[in-house]
Amino acid sequence: MTAGPRGYDRTKRAIDLVVASTALVLLAPVLVVVAAAVRWRLGGPVLFRQMRPGRHGVPFELLKFRTMREGPCIPAHDAERLTPLGRGLRAMSLDDLPNLWNVLRGDMSLVGPRPLLVQYLDRYTPEQARRHEVRPGVTGLAQVRGRNALTWEEKFAYGVAYVDGRCLRLDVKILLATVGFIARRHGISASGSATAPEFVGSSHGRGSGDRGLWSHGREMLGIVRAVNAVSPTWRVLGFVDDKPSAVSRERVSRLVVSLLGPLEWLGSLPPTTRVVLGVGNPRTRRSLADRVAEYGLAAASLVHPAATVGPDLVAGEGLLVFAGARVTTNVVLARAPQSERDRRSRLHAGGLRVGQPACRCLR
């Protein structure tokens, strides 16, 4: 099941509202005590706020109780920043209680894949990215199967398994299992880590033999899919490559797209077709852009839903803004429209502030 019936979604949302609002009222004394303890031991602010990707990868502000020391002179490693109070709160999952407010706001659900970091979005395989087809949860299948004791691949597999098999019975089982799992205090941290190691991407499916089609091209496909998840806009025809014989068709099949053939194949497409240049090398990219233009086609401009773009951005042809990027001032990126190029002699990125991962402004 890739998308739950509307009846299930409505029922689950109603349950989320009732349970979250009731829990916030009943647990108000606990919230006050924990907030006071955090204030006393760690100072302000009491709450930890961080942007996390929600349903369809759209970011929201996650709320938790602080468990780590902060400041310019504080060590960077989690093990050195995590306080005894923080360890206790994490062991009992009390630091996640403010997540209930996220549930009330509709950012999260009681049950679903846990929200991870925004910078992980372009590191997922297409299968792993399916975890964003549903709202993230306060608890989830991975949390009751091992939590941080699991590998990243195991966590993602459980996330996708929940997306495919979600139903009210499964939700109830996960909620009940969560209580027992918290009582046993299992999987609070990964082996050799105070919390969990950084996810740097899955090693399978990567290799130099597949060149841009598997690396940069995969990221481009991820942006297209994220855009379509929010508002269906694009129909993906497939990949073309300047040397298709050098590309593994088996790995193309993992992307659930077709390898259409060499670049000459573009000559058979109507002029309304848009091309996404999945090539990171600027020189190669410019060369391919010129060849694409010879066929009378234009490059698509794509902005990931998890990117923050200011209202004054001049989005030129072929603009690609990745998840986590922040473009907050008046800038011109990619190939600007002709009138804009006449006014500004060169492209610039003045005032561009980029988060993690780095925004790739490909021209």
Largest sheet report:
2 strands, antiparallel
Alpha-carbon distance between the two ends: 40 Å
Mean pLDDT: 75
User: What is the β-strand count?
Assistant: 14
Low-confidence stretches: 190-194, 204-213, 336-363
Strand content: 5-15%
Spatial strand order of the main sheet = 1-2
- Total number of distinct structural domains: 2
Overall radius of gyration: 23 Å
The coarse overall form would be elongated
Structural class from helices and strands?
Answer: alpha/beta
Write the element-wise H/E pattern from the N-terminal end onward: HHEEHHHEEHHHHEHEEHEEEEEEEH
Work out the helix count.
12
Sum this structure up briefly.
By secondary structure, the protein is an alpha/beta fold. It contains twelve helices and 14 strands. The protein is elongated and about 70 Å long.
List the helices and strands and how they pair.
Layout: H1 6-26, H2 28-42, E1 47-53, E2 59-65, H3 78-81, H4 84-91, H5 99-105, E3 109-111, E4 137-139, H6 152-165, H7 168-184, H8 211-214, H9 216-230, E5 239-240, H10 249-254, E6 259-261, E7 274-275, H11 282-294, E8 298-299, E9 302-303, E10 308-309, E11 314-315, E12 320-321, E13 326-327, E14 332-333, H12 338-343
Parallel strand pairs: 3-4, 5-6, 7-8, 9-12, 10-13, 11-14
Antiparallel strand pairs: 1-2
Helix pairs in contact: 1-5
